[in-house]
């Protein structure tokens, strides 16, 4: 082939590329992977990332496809932050309080004992400065964190015996993780963390005396109501929020419209998880109440609650020493809760109190 022929072919190829470049760019497909802390059947937790991925694919017309891997696939349920940070996964779905050992500033973004309810906490995130603080915390990890779905107010746990005094707690063996576990340990409980698959057997055999899980919607399949007749109302996780983690470098490589689609889908699926869990709990409790009428729904007596609040306050005070960012987060949450709680009381509490 002579030089003229080569040049002609190159010019034709260049023209074709130039003509198709905008269309090719528009059709470029981004394939991401997301790792979750949850097993493949743990609804509604596993449903939030799956629904998000489905929305993203549909809204982007197939330009962004996210594969969701449950914990049984990647085998690192509590390694989500490290995998997203390191780039093994582009995204993750987990809970911020799991990273307390790596970064103490992360855990308040999940929930705090005696803290905000789900509507209050989401208002704080999006309108009260919470997102800005979360961005500041996760910046050094080179990941972005977004609210990932709330369980709402969790129940205080299943107990084999009734709790009437603080002394009744002393010596009890209980599965209760996180900051709430530290509060209970301060009151004399022996706190343990047992794998979910072993909880029923441990409670049945008396290896533990009590445990907390989530609420009726997720508790019913675990079968705890068949063993422990006392079901206590919540105090420790009033608005547990899960989280989406996004690798910052991968996010910046997305076109602006796909970034907007991703953020929108995360926000929509997070709310959907909350209402799905609310529905699941209402149906599950109706079934539990009918089939196991011996279940007694209890509230911890005021002296016990007062002791929990005192232990909680003391632990928080100790924890912020030498931790200015953690103190900033605590202060922001406390100030917002104080402000928003007046409206919560007027709009929800009084209405429910007067109409139940």
From TrEMBL:
Domain of life, per lineage: Bacteria
Gene Ontology annotations of biological process type: transmembrane transport
Keyword entries, A-Z: Metal-binding, Signal
Residues where substrate binds: 154, 175, 212, 237
One CC-aspect GO term: tripartite ATP-independent periplasmic transporter complex
Signal peptide from the UniProt entry: 1-26
GO molecular function ontology, one term from the record: metal ion binding
InterPro entries from the UniProt entry: DctP_fam (IPR018389), SBP_TakP-like (IPR026289), TRAP_DctP_sf (IPR038404)
Chain positions recorded as Na(+) binding sites: 213
Record protein name field: ABC transporter substrate-binding protein
Upper classification of the organism: Bacteria, Pseudomonadati, Campylobacterota, Epsilonproteobacteria, Campylobacterales
């Amino acid at each position: 082939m002579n030089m003229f022929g080569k040049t002609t072919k190159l010019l034709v190829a260049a023209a074709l590329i130039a003509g198709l470049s905008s269309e090719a760019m528009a059709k470029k497909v981004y394939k991401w992977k997301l790792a979750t802390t949850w097993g493949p059947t743990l609804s509604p937790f596993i449903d939030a990332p799956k629904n998000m991925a489905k929305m993203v694919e549909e809204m982007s017309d197939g330009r962004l496809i996210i594969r969701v891997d449950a914990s049984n696939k990647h085998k690192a349920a509590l390694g989500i932050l490290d995998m997203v940070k390191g780039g093994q996964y582009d995204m993750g779905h987990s809970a911020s309080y799991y990273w307390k050992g790596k970064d103490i500033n992360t855990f308040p973004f999940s929930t705090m004992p005696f803290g905000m309810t789900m509507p209050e906490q989401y208002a704080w995130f999006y309108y009260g400065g919470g997102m800005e603080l979360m961005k500041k915390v996760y910046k050094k990890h080179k990941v972005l964190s977004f609210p990932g779905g709330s369980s709402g107010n969790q129940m205080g746990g299943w107990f084999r015996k009734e709790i009437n005094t603080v002394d009744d707690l002393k010596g009890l063996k209980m599965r209760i993780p996180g900051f709430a576990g530290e509060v209970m340990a301060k009151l004399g409980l022996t706190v343990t963390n047992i794998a979910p698959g072993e909880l029923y057997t441990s409670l049945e055999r008396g290896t533990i005396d009590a445990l907390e899980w989530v609420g009726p919607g997720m508790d019913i399949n675990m079968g705890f109501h068949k063993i422990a007749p006392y079901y206590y109302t919540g105090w420790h996780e009033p608005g547990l929020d899960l989280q989406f983690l996004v690798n910052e470098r991968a996010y910046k490589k997305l076109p602006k419209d796909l970034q907007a689609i991703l953020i929108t889908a995360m926000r929509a699926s997070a709310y959907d998880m909350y209402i799905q869990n609310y529905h699941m709990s209402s149906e599950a409790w109706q079934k539990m109440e009918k089939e196991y009428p011996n279940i007694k729904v209890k509230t911890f007596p005021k002296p016990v609650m007062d002791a929990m609040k005192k232990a909680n306050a003391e632990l928080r005070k100790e924890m912020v020493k030498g931790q200015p960012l953690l103190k900033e987060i605590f202060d922001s949450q406390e100030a917002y809760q104080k402000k928003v709680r007046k409206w919560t009381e007027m709009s929800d509490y009084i209405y429910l109190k007067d109409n139940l």
